[in-house]
Structure formats: structure tokens, C-alpha cells
């Protein structure tokens, strides 16, 4: 895998989804080949032409480890939910960036990697910032 290690380039995070999809298809085809062509090292006549319904059954039963997660599908064909928690933080006097501060994976717990920072105000650790939109409107006025 090629990586760009200079400060001018960032690897596109969406490429991991593409790679994972390709590996999922490969595992599905491999499992189908093992099932339909036992004791052979390649395609056999039972696989040609490829039956999409049979392939889908093998694809939905794929399970493999990708980094720190297991790639698999539930009975509806959905993968487990996974969310990365990002926080917009000041990283220097003039720069801000999104920082990965936590993760949640279905069936698991929320995993906090680092504390949240509020980029535009300073707040002590015991007092959360007050949300401007939570203040009630004076009589006769509406929020815009």
C-alpha cells in the first residue's frame, strides 16, 4: 500500500471503504469457489456462469477481520453500525482541524480516545458550555 508521508497530503479516508468492499467480494467469491469446486484450485463448471443468488448467499456469510473490526452482515444484509466521533479543535494559533476523539460500534461500548475541546471558548472542566439556542426567547420574539 502506498502512503504519502509529507505534510501536504492526507490519505483519503474513503479509500478504506473501497478496499474493504473489494476484500468482501474476494472472500465471497473464494467461499463460493471452495463450496462449488471442492478439491480444485480455480473455477469449475459449477461456477460458470456465476449464479448471482448463490454468490449473494456466500457474500452475506463473509466474516473477516479488517484492522480493529470484524466485517460481517446481519440477517438483513447490513453490517454492524460504526461511528467515529470527531471534534473540531484548535491545533495551533491559526489552524483548526477535525480530531478523532471517540468511536462507537454496535453491540459495544462508546470508546473515548481523548477529551473534547471547545474551540472558541474556554471552559473549566466542571462547567459545560452554555448553548445559545437553549435560552428562552423573550415574549413576542421568535428564534431565527
TrEMBL record:
Alphabetic keyword roster: Glycoprotein, Membrane, Transmembrane, Transmembrane helix
Protein's UniProt keywords contain Transmembrane: yes
Major place of residence: membrane
InterPro entries tied to this protein: ANF_lig-bd_rcpt, mGluR, Peripla_BP_I
Cellular localization per UniProt: Membrane
Listed GO CC annotations: membrane
Residue ranges occupied by any Receptor ligand binding region domain in the UniProt entry: 9-90
A Pfam family this chain is assigned to: ANF_receptor
Highest rank taxon of the organism: Eukaryota
PANTHER family in the record: METABOTROPIC GLUTAMATE RECEPTOR
The protein's name in its UniProt record: Receptor ligand binding region domain-containing protein
Organism of this sequence: Medioppia subpectinata
Amino acid at each position: 500500500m502506498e502512503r504519502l508521508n509529507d505534510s501536504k497530503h492526507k490519505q483519503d479516508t474513503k479509500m478504506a471503504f473501497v478496499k474493504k468492499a473489494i476484500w468482501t467480494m474476494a472472500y465471497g467469491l473464494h467461499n463460493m469457489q471452495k463450496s462449488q469446486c471442492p478439491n480444485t484450485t480455480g473455477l469449475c463448471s459449477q461456477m460458470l456462469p456465476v449464479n448471482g443468488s448463490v454468490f449473494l448467499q456466500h457474500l452475506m456469510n463473509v466474516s473477516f477481520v479488517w484492522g480493529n473490526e470484524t466485517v460481517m452482515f446481519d440477517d438483513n444484509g447490513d453490517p454492524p453500525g460504526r461511528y467515529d466521533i470527531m471534534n473540531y479543535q484548535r491545533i495551533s494559533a491559526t489552524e483548526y482541524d477535525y480530531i478523532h476523539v471517540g468511536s462507537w460500534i454496535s453491540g459495544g461500548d462508546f470508546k473515548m480516545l481523548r477529551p473534547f475541546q471547545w474551540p472558541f471558548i474556554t471552559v473549566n472542566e466542571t462547567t459545560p458550555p452554555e448553548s445559545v439556542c437553549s435560552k428562552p426567547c423573550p415574549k413576542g420574539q421568535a428564534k431565527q
